[in-house]
């Protein structure tokens, strides 16, 4: 790679006090410390209607989905940090990734995903940290053509998991996150 790896980080929750947004910020800081160029997105800033084929036929891909697609196109890596709802992917995350995957004029929505490498993380007030959905997010990203790295992190009891400076209080978890972002950085450097 001749350019600095660029990594897009976002959470699958729009909630203002989202624990996953907190973890996304921690992951973004960690990725930035590897030397990567990092963009931290808040999907709250990109409201998109629920996918509806009639809406798409009448008005095309919503402008906010197009904006996200343009952002994705300028990044090599993704860090997706999401809660689970009933052990499943959140509607926000699914809807966002679905809209981005749609063809838009001459653009095939899937080509964009194919050269991306991703990490998946989750946070929850529960003990398992949203672990059950990580497999499903992995599967969804894989279906889109994204290469998802094997290491993942689920932060349980997440209301108590963060220091005031945004790092994880559990040193082992923080070390794991740093190792994951370092591996993402190294993989992107090797690939591009
Ligand atoms: C519909 C719904 C289903 C949920 N199901 C789960 C679940 O299966 N496992 C879990 O750990 N937490 C579950 N939760 C709790 C969320 O983890 C919790 O609300 C969390 O704070 C949401 O993430 P956020 O803080 O990033 O918005 C659920 C919450 C909602 C609203």
Protein model, in words:
The protein is of the alpha/beta class and 192 residues long. The protein has a single domain, classed as Rossmann fold (3-Layer(aba) Sandwich). The protein is built from seven helices and seven strands; from the N terminus they run βαβααβββααβαβα. It has helices at 19-33, 53-59, 63-73, 91-100, 111-114, 131-144, 171-191; strands at 6-11, 37-41, 77-81, 84-85, 88-89, 117-123, 147-155. Strands 2-1-3-6-7 form a five-stranded parallel sheet, with helices on both faces. Strands 4-5 form a two-stranded antiparallel sheet. The model has no long low-confidence stretch (mean pLDDT 97). Flavin mononucleotide (FMN) binds next to helix 1 and strand 4.
What's the SSE blueprint?
Elements: E1 6-11, H1 19-33, E2 37-41, H2 53-59, H3 63-73, E3 77-81, E4 84-85, E5 88-89, H4 91-100, H5 111-114, E6 117-123, H6 131-144, E7 147-155, H7 171-191
Bound molecules: flavin mononucleotide (FMN).
The site of flavin mononucleotide (FMN) has 15 residues, from helix 1 and strand 4.
Average pLDDT, all residues: 97
Name of the CATH homologous superfamily: Flavodoxin domain
* Distance linking N and C termini: 4 Å
Tally of strands: 7
Counting helices, strands and paired strands, the structural category is alpha/beta
> Helix amount, in percent?
40-55%
What's the CATH architecture name?
3-Layer(aba) Sandwich
Domain count:
1
User: What is the overall silhouette?
Assistant: globular
Bound ligand species: flavin mononucleotide
CATH class: Alpha Beta
Order of helices and strands: EHEHHEEEHHEHEH
Strand order of the largest sheet: 2-1-3-6-7
Which percent band covers the strand fraction? Answer: 15-25%
Using the CA coordinates, give the radius of gyration: 16 Å
List segments where confidence is low: pLDDT < 50 over at least 5 consecutive residues.
Answer: none
CATH third-tier fold name: Rossmann fold
How many separate helices? 7
The biggest beta sheet is recorded as: 5 strands, parallel
